[in-house]
From TrEMBL:
Comp. bias intervals (Low complexity): 350-362
One of the record's GO molecular function terms: branched-chain amino acid transmembrane transporter activity
Protein name: Branched-chain amino acid ABC transporter permease
Region (Disordered): 347-369
Keyword Cell membrane: yes
Transmembrane annotation, as ranges: 30-48, 55-73, 85-104, 111-129, 173-192, 223-247, 259-287
Subcellular location: Cell membrane
Cross-referenced InterPro entries: ABC_transp_permease, LivM-like
Membrane disposition: Multi-pass membrane protein
A cellular component annotation (GO) from this entry: plasma membrane
Pfam families referenced in this protein's UniProt entry, alphabetically: BPD_transp_2
Length: 369
């Protein structure tokens, strides 16, 4: 019975996510796609910061490597490789970039690693602006569409209609993002539940104790950084496919701070928490932009100076959410949800078959011959 219940907890959300493209318009599908891409990157950062205890402010750099790596490898100018191969190579390229930086990650930690990774963001932004032949410079470059076995993730390539619903680029990219997110989810949970996850948790709790137990501190730190970089590269490539055009200014320090906000709000060390935080931080500014006319104290995009725009208002809100989480729920939304479930379980009344007999019934039973 418990196995069926656990399977139901997984299959029901998957089923809901699979049928949503039949009922949602393009705006909501784009929000979902960006949220899934952000969740992939947040899960990777959570493995590094939440599980291994390594602070990183350079996540935006590896997102940019994945995004621009795919755009260059699959586009013109560039090698013009098949887009599926370019996607895989872009993820590997982000892993190589993480591997080149991993000796630093293996030797320093805490605020020192945070400052070191911060340098990556500024260095990467400078390269994106100056390497015009690869990145397109300030104006960025267009992103070639993905194609798998002749099936293109664009409008009408080929034309697909299911149950009367035409499947355009948003619907197709939704299922691509869902598949990639599912792959990320299960591989991350496998890492956390296996020996690498236990070693990373031991490193986070006490390096000395982990070294005594035989954990290679530098090796596991470096491996966590490489894996996190590959997750970020995959997220960057998926974001590039969703945006269809990428510019250097998107991959700045603010993006790295957004990802830190995701894992803090969702809950450090939790795959589900990182996903919840990614959905919250990603969807909030987009929703506020669409409904700015109906929200108090929020001005529509392009309004006069001095007013609070949707993006700024969203940053204020999830900044306040970070403060509230740190004060009242240090384990994030995931820990808060677990505590609420446990409390509701304790308050659930016993069924008549499981309720203990009353005292009068017990005495009557004792005197019954």
């Amino acid at each position: 019975m418990s196995d069926l219940r656990e399977r139901g907890k997984v299959l029901l959300p998957v089923l809901v996510l699979c049928v949503l493209p039949f009922y949602l318009d393009a705006f909501w599908l784009r929000i979902g796609l960006f949220a899934m891409a952000a969740a992939i990157g947040a899960v990777g950062l959570n493995l590094l910061a939440g599980t291994a205890g390594q602070l990183s402010l350079g996540h935006a750099f590896f997102l940019a490597v994945g995004a621009y790596g795919y755009a260059w490898l699959a586009g013109e100018p560039g090698p013009g490789l098949p887009s599926a191969l370019a996607l895989v190579l872009a993820v590997l390229l982000a892993g190589v970039a993480g591997g080149l930086f991993s000796p630093v990650a293996g030797r320093v930690r805490g605020i020192y690693l945070g400052v070191a990774t911060l340098a990556l963001v500024f260095l990467g932004h400078h390269v994106l602006l100056t390497a015009d032949s690869v990145t397109g410079g300030f104006n960025g470059r267009s992103v070639p569409p993905l194609s798998l076995g002749g099936f293109g993730f664009t409008d009408g390539d080929p034309e697909v209609v299911l149950l009367g619903v035409p499947f355009g680029a948003e619907e197709r990219l939704w299922y691509l993002g869902l598949a990639l997110f599912a792959l990320t989810w299960f591989t991350a949970r496998g890492i956390l539940r296996g020996r690498p996850g236990r070693a990373l948790v031991a490193l986070r709790d006490s390096e000395t104790a982990a070294a005594v137990m035989g954990v290679d501190v530098a090796r596991y730190r470096s491996a966590a950084f490489v894996v996190s970089s590959m997750y970020a590269g995959l997220a960057g490539a998926l974001l590039a496919l969703g945006f269809r055009r990428i510019v250097p200014d998107y991959f700045g320090l603010a993006l790295s701070v957004d990802y830190l906000a995701m894992i803090v709000i969702g809950g450090l060390g939790s795959v589900a928490g990182a996903t919840a935080g990614a959905v919250f931080v990603t969807a909030l500014p987009l929703l506020m932009t669409r409904y700015a006319d109906h929200l108090p104290l929020v001005a529509a995009p392009g309004s006069a100076e001095g007013s609070v725009g949707p993006t700024e208002a969203a940053r204020y809100l999830y900044g306040a959410a970070i403060v509230l989480v740190l004060l009242y729920a240090p384990d994030g939304l995931h820990g808060l949800t677990s505590r609420v479930r446990a409390r509701l379980g304790r308050r659930r009344p016993l069924t008549p078959a499981a309720s203990p007999p009353s005292a009068s019934a017990a005495r009557a039973k004792e005197h019954t011959p």
